[in-house]
Amino acid sequence: MKFEALDIVILGHLAKDVIEIDGKRFESLGGAVYYGGIAGSHMGLKIAIITKLKEADYPLLQVFEKNGVSCYVSPSKETSGLRNIYSSENMEFRDYKPIGFAGLFNKEDIPNLNPPPKFFVIGSITAGEIDLELLDYIKSKYRNICLDIQGFIRFINNGKVFYSDLSLKEKKKILSNINVLKIDQTEAKVLTNHQDINEAARELVKFGPNEILITHERGISVCTSNSSFIFPWKNKKIIGRTGRGDTAFISYLGSRITKNSEDSLKFATALTSLKLEAPGPFNLPLYEVENLIKKEF
Question: What sign has the CA pseudo-torsion 194, 195, 201, 207?
Answer without folding.
Answer: positive
